[in-house]
Amino acid sequence: ENTAIRSAIRETPELNGITLIDHNRTTGNNVTLEETHRGTPVEINRRYLEASLKIAIGETRLDPLTGYAGAHSAVVPGLASNETIKGYRRKYMDSPSTMGSLELNSIKEDVFEALGKTGIDFALNIVTNKEGKVLAVHGGGYEESWGKAINSLADQYEVKTESGADIVIISAGGGAYDESLYPAMWALLNGSKAAKRNGTIVLLAQCMTGLGAEAFTQLARVNESDELKRRYTYGAEVLDVLRQIQKTSRVILVSALPNYLVESLGMDVSRTANDAYQRAIQSRRGRKTTIIPYGCKTIWSEK
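RE: above sequence
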């Protein structure tokens, strides 16, 4: 992990004094702060919290929970504990948000309340398009620079097309969006909007690092929203998204995941997009097909 960053530090004499510390949601050495008024526990990496200068750097892009991610995402969820991340993500099941949605977004508000407790002295928000090209960079306070970065995106993510497709072929978008099943699954939100009732959605996501969330194994046989909420564990919110979509659509996953892991979630499995498409058109009269190449980087709307 972080191989490119480590190599860059080693190869740059001016950076030789930098210490690189890895953090993930299961890392210890966190400090517990006061919880948010919505009841989310705030636990943040101790080294960050005790630093004299806190700088956050990140990409401003669509996020299914907070509307848009940004530099602040390097702190929450980036430097947060598992309990903090679960605390705000489980709120999706009571108040679902959408990509690009900021107004009345209780999850975003909860995250920003947590950020107010952790502190960020300076934020650098990097704006990119769907191909990863840098469009702009905004620095300053984390909320102000994030807002400017969102404005710089303009309509980069907006796509208008017809709904009612018999078959929707949707890619998570590559890179970080399909390294595991958890981020890739959010692409189904756009796929379901484009598909007709009883249509088929083909999700393309490599998932080389696996499932990415405990809910896909621990709650794989759970179908009801109330039970997923009661037994919540990391990833249950997107598993609930899958369950709701499966009520009206067939889902075929094209990935590197073992069949038994995917089939336990009620999805069909294919190894190639062509094979998945052939399976989708079998026994169908209608073959109207919509292709969405950047499923997690798209704000879909009907023409």
